[in-house]
Protein 1
Amino acid sequence: MTQAPVKIGIIGGGLMGREMASAFARWCALEEIGVTPVLTAVADLSEPVLAWFDRIPTVHLKTRDYRELLASSEVDVVYVALPHHLHAPVYTEVLRAGKDLFAEKPFGIDLAAAESIVSVITETGRFCRCSSEFPFLPGAQRALELARNGDLGRVLEIRSGFHHSSDLDSNKPANWKRLSHTCGEIGVMGDLGMHALHLPLRLGWKPTTVYAQLQKGVAERPNPDGTTTACDTWDNAALHTWTEARGHRAPMTLEMKRLSPGSTNSWFFEVLGTDGGVRFNTSDPKALWVFRRDKEQWWQRTDLGFGMPFKTITGGIFEPGFPDIMQQMWAAFLLERAGQLQGRFGCVTPEEALASHQLFAAALRSEASHSVERVN
Ligand SMILES: NC(=O)c1ccc[n+]([C@@H]2O[C@H](COP(=O)([O-])OP(=O)(O)OC[C@H]3O[C@@H](n4cnc5c(N)ncnc54)[C@H](O)[C@@H]3O)[C@@H](O)[C@H]2O)c1
């Protein structure tokens, strides 16, 4: 199959920027795919970060000024992975420069920022999607299919979330993700909330009301020079919502935690109904748990293999991991951009990202009022 090259520029080559470069570098793993990303340009303020990209031979432009990258005719699509306060200004510049955009979550520091990004997408007509990779795992895809079409009876409860524990260590230095002015007042919801909402929103399970329990953790963290920085973001969020699922009102709990003892990076999704149910958690990444009820009640565990939405050279019995789902997410982005998704699972749309911000804004109101708030 001919593979049309798509020239990619990255703005922000930190943790995520490098992860994406690595996904492109092993694109040969994908079968029957008509598009190939070619990383041509990188912009970052840090010289050591730019130097890391010397290992990618197709990168011709490395710059501290992202506007130089936007001016380059050697860039078709821009992936932006910057601190959250820079999302709206940089995303809108990317779109107005005539480039398509793969945007990192949370898609703006707050609801107003997300609204401004969506309005510039409409104004420019550029193609834009937002990053969320965990639903590309085989277990998540199977859970999605069961949630949509499985014999579940009436949906009784939905739980979706993301837990990690990297903030339990109070000696971990402060960074932009712990400060409201760079991470957002929404804190952990901006960090992890899009991951928790991608499947519910894709299923049409939009929250209508929310009662939020938000918690802060370590108030001060050390800097390398011996001083300390006040950390003011919410670290844990439990959002108790109502939604409409398969024709009935159902409670849906969305959990985002940076302080979850024992969790490294646990993304989970579960739906329980009167007749059936499904559970998937990346802490046991090959296991799909399916509930059924006949004379007795059963939780059945299936050992999953490499059943990815986009076919690869990897044998069906093997285990997928984080780098694989990053690559799958890019396959979805590039194929949808080329009009070739053909009904397969796609990345978060701008409308879904906006819906996540509407929920987070209502959650902040709920935390302040200690009451249930309507999500609009
Ligand atoms: N999808 C995921 O699983 C996932 C995981 C982690 C982070 N993220 C998201 O990715 C984004 C970036 O997070 P990260 O963890 O990669 O952050 P990071 O701090 O590791 O990287 C950010 C990079 O941006 C650079 N930068 C800052 N200001 C800049 C500017 N004006 N011009 C150019 N470069 C600039 C920094 O030098 C740094 O290298 C955030 O939106 C975050 O929420 C997504």
Note: The longest strand covers residues 236-245.
Protein 2
Amino acid sequence: MRFKKASGRVELAEGTRNPAFRDADGDEPAAEHSAGREDHSARTEDPSAGREDGVAAVVEPEAAVAVVGDEYSQVRPYAGMPKEVLLRYSSQARYRVPREILFWLTVCCTLALVAVTVTVVAVSPRCLSWWQASPVYQVYPRSFKDSDGDGIGDLKGIVEKLDHFLYLNIKSVWISPFYRSPMRDFGYDVEDFRDIDPIFGTMADFENLLAEMHQRGLKLIMDFIPNHTSDRHRWFNLSRTRDPHYEDYYVWADCNSTSPKPNNWVRTVSVFGNSSWTYDEVRGQCYLHQFLKEQPDLNFRNPDVRQEIIDLIRFWLDKGVDGFRMDAVKHILEAEHLRDEPQVYPDRPPESVTTEWDLHHDYTYTQLGLHDLLREFRAEMDAYSREPGRYRYRGPRGRVAMWPAGVPNGRKLGVRNIMVCVWLGRFMVTESYDYHEVEKTMMYYGTRLIKESDFPFNFYLLDLPHNKSGAWAKHLVDLWMANMPLGKWPNWVVGNHDRSRIASSAGPTYVRAINMMLLTLPGTPTTYYGEEIGMENINVTESQIQDPAGKYNASASRDPERSPMQWNDDMNAGFNNKTNVTWLPVHPDYESVNVEVQKADGGSVLSQYRSLSSLRQTALPFLRGWFCYVHADANVFSYVRELDGHRAAYLILLNFGTQSAATDLSSVQELPDQLEVVAATNPVRDGNTVQKSSILTEAGEGLVMQYSTYTRFHPKHPAECFVSEKACLLETIGILYKC
Ligand SMILES: [Ca+2]
Ligand SMILES: [Ca+2]
């Protein structure tokens, strides 16, 4: 060995004298390299240059190249070897070729990876948001759970029952208002939007509720009431005393206690007399109120009011809430000219106008500018969510939560067949009743380019009980599906705090079939508390009436659908287990209709709700697939849920009529002759096989049937089918793609 290592340097001595040098790469004489060596010589004229120790460089270029001569052919490269020698080695074919192969392999792999990533992103359908993946559950806080024994539900009570949502596979919870309020309209008359009413708890209780919900992966949707405040709100007191800043915060018009009102505007006469105007003695003018006289309308023509509302939205976003349900949005703006609204019966005298039904509300509902306002709210929510560090949803144990967009039924949840989405956007739903003007409702979806609400509430199914037939059910469903803008996401409501419970209005016979429809239609179902166990209205005597609307007109009372939640068969149905007080009576059927009893019964309404909710979340066709009408008649409504590329498809058949029926679907060629019942309102039919030529159902009975085929129904029936976004499944590798 001729190498000597000294003072961290490599010394080559004898190699300089080796005349037998040949380029290892080509056996060329060393002369070929003489030109190159001239350069080296030039660079090393002053061998000591750059050396701190002043010692002359011991590696001469001539020496370096000589090392690779035959004499040193056994020497292998190692770290620390002089650069020149290394370069000689590296130019040898046996080193160069593998190196170049590795280099180009790396380049090709990187390009392929980028191409695959771009392709996957390009062909993947959009992630489902949390409000699409889960049903929305409405909590009416007065009635859900009372934690302190005062007879009224509260925020701590909700915390006690959070596991109920998980049991139902529900992630999205809308809680009706719990702001500080004089409770003239049980929270929809807000005295302070930034405070919690003591009846429900404190701000600390709210923050704890939100933290507990997020800890469990639950989302909280706040109720938000932009149209009006309570007449006890600080703004109203400042406005009626003509504080310069607040003078125009509400809609004021000249009038006095004896002269005619500013115009003929009328709303909800049963509650507050025959005018939407009330004279205020402090200010000496009338103020507008589209609801109770204790709920003065805000003046959204005033930019300061708009800013106040945006500040309130930001206040609650700061707290971490996940979405808003915007109350009574069509009432937000009024025409500034204050003209009389046209009478429905123009020939009648003006005095005959006493109810809202006597007028065309051309100047008080859905005014120009309303959607701009809502889009402003929406943009604010989205902009806020995008601010760095603003919105970070954390799931259990601090992990960023991931939402499965659906996995094929019966399979384990695995990486291969899961679409993982981390979606951090806020949710907005609007409430507006425009029954006969569906196009007005659809405008709340926004446009293709401008987002408004994620969906406006769809109340058509509230009318299901008015005509018990399959054809009527299809008609109501189609009212939405046929009018919804392309690519939007449907939703379904069968009950809320303002409307009779569906189990009472339709009858308990139909509860299971209605829940089955709710959970198998495309889009987001909304479940009002108690619907999952089939709770019914209570009877409220005149002395028990709590609802202000009911105090004016008992038939308009909304108390019957607001009775305490029935948790078990203990005192007060478990709603208040501390004292024998409840703000409204508990339904007498609570001993048999309650959560605890139904949990123990695999065939109960609750168990059925739970399994259907689970099916909806795990079977891809329900979240991602086509929805196609198959059949509708006097009794039966039937539809298919299917997904291209996915072998499993589902036929749902619901008997909303009053008689049993034998439905013959043999003309539907896409269906196999035999179908397997995977969910039935009558549990004894679970797992049965039915023939498509004669599917028997009793009144109120529903079946979810699964079948296996790649022959799809929708290609030949495009007029009967809807899908929010086309997606196909590559079943072999479990990947969804746009198609
Ligand atoms: Ca309480
Ligand atoms: Ca208004």
Note: Residues 51 and 57 are 8 Å apart (CA to CA).
